[in-house]
Structure formats: C-alpha cells, structure tokens
Amino acid sequence: MSTPSLKDQVSPEEWQLRVDLAACYRLVAAYGWSDLIFTHISARIPGPEHQFLINPYGLLFEEITASSLIKIDQAGNKLSASEHPVNPAGFVIHSAVHAVRDDAACDLHTHTRAGVAVSAQACGVLPISQQSTFVLASLGYHTYEGVALHDAEKPRLQADLGDAKHLMLRNHGLLVVGSSIAEAFLLMYNFESTCQIQLAAQAGGTLIEVDPRIVDGVGHAMRTQTGGLGGAFAWPAMLRKLDRMDTSYRT
After folding, report:
1. CATH of domain 12-250
2. Tens digit of pLDDT for each residue in 113-148?
C-alpha cells in the first residue's frame, strides 16, 4: 500500500522520529516479534502536549512507513489523517506510560511466545544468564486484568512500572520503556533473548543462578557495553541491516 508522504508537512524533528519509529516496526517484524497486527510501539513527540506516534491498526509491521504512522493525543484523538483506527488496547497502555514517564521517548510491547511463556511462570525472570542480569536491573511486573481496554487499569499499570525500563505483563507479554527508539529496540532485544534462554535452560538440567551481587552491579556494565543505554552502538548497524533489506520504511 502507498501513503502520501508527510515529509514536507511536519517538522524535521518529527520526520526523523517517524523514520526511526517505522524502522523499529520493520525490525520487530524482521526479528519475528510481531503478532500479526496486534501489538504496538509508540514514540513521544517532544513538547508539553504529550502527543505520540503509533501504528495504524490493520497494517502488518512490515508495511509500516514513516508517513503511515498516526499522531494521537492523550485522549486518543487522531491528529494526523489516516483511514485506519488506533488499536484501543495500544492506546490505553501507551497513553498510561507517556502520561507519567517523561523519560519514555519510546514504548515497545510484544506478545512473543517466549515472552508470554515466561510471563506465565510464577518465578518470572530468573537470574541465569548474562542477558537476564540486564533485565533484572530494572524490572517490574503487572498482573493480568484482561485485554487492556479500560482507563481504570492505567493507575495500576503505572504503579507497577514505576521507574523501571522493563515491565513483564503477566500472562500477556513484554513491555520496555526507552529514552529513545534505539534504546527501546535494544532493551526488547535483550528482554526477548532473556526469555528464550530461560525456556531453553529449563528444558535441560539443574539451573545455576548468577550471584546477586553481580545483578546489583550490572548498571555500570550496561552503560559501558551499550553506549549509555541509548543503543548508540547498535542502532546505526540495525538501520544499515534494514536498508539492505528494504528502504520503503523511510517514505
């Protein structure tokens, strides 16, 4: 499908945000984390209005372009023209996060098999891999309340998230909050890997847990290894990978 370009109708800052968010959708699809059309990624537009960009409900993630993304406000009103609606559950979850987390430049939510499987385990994330220590350094849990369609759930979701980077939605999936789109993608890559590794390890023998002191000190390692948690090292490489596959997300 083709959507008329918005490049000349929005600010350069918003256009760059749209390109990066569209890239994130395409990468989520490429890595197999999408659930048909039923999950969502949002990016906050800088400013006091708490406006953010989100996917047009009905498009596959591999179809998302910079111009097809929909701008909405905290009430869910569409501020950019689109023939598509906004996923109601996506609006509830992302509006809840953006309302209370000024550092939430991007929220990324998935329903992967590994993520949902671990979210259904009473133990939650176990400290059994290097990847898990990064998650456990900043992790919250939110009890399942059904499909997230009701504003009444927002205060509980906000309280369970707190200031964490990762939120495990029990019996539902994974959510990450990044200070940039690049960071959100990297956080989810690691969160998803953590869950896949845990399920694989549980299929084997007795598990060895990481020393709690190592988990406590992982924050410094994260800042050193990932470029200040912002994904500065990984994101340019991800864009090059995507551009080798398909550049249409930039339109």
Report:
1. 3.40.225.10
2. 999 999 999 999 999 999 999 999 999 999 999 998
